[in-house]
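I'll show a typical protein example:
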Amino acid sequence: MRFLLIVRHCEARPASGSERDWDRPLTDRGREQAAQIREWMTEEALTRGYLPARVLVSSARRTRETFALTFEAAGVVEESVVSNLIYNGGRDVSGEDILADLGALDDVRTNLAVVAHNPSVSELVYGLVGGWPEGLSEGLPVGAVIVLELDDTRPVGLSPYRWIESFLPV
């Protein structure tokens, strides 16, 4: 059995003035959310076998900061790939776009994770689960981590996956 963690980046500052959306940093609350995710990963996710070996990260500053303060800081990742293709600030990115990039990273042996943006991650979760996981309404809040069980005989793709649990930092 292996797992896919789908993470919406933690809270970021709104763009100000001439600042590009891509450059938005995490807020203090966002850094606190990241610390909560890191703690959850090093305690709960480690115990349950969820920790990813490979992580796909959107190239935006807020997603890279979320990754650095959570997965990277926990020292659990073997490989990370930063992708411009899953940053949705310049174009619409679908859940299928994320799956295509994840598929290129998938060795069909290890757990995976993606750190990206709404609405793409919400679309991805909804499509893979076939609805909203327990305790969520429509859309993922900032900092949400969704754990799905992957088929350990096939690469990640457009298959229905079983929702295992969610972690929602405060």
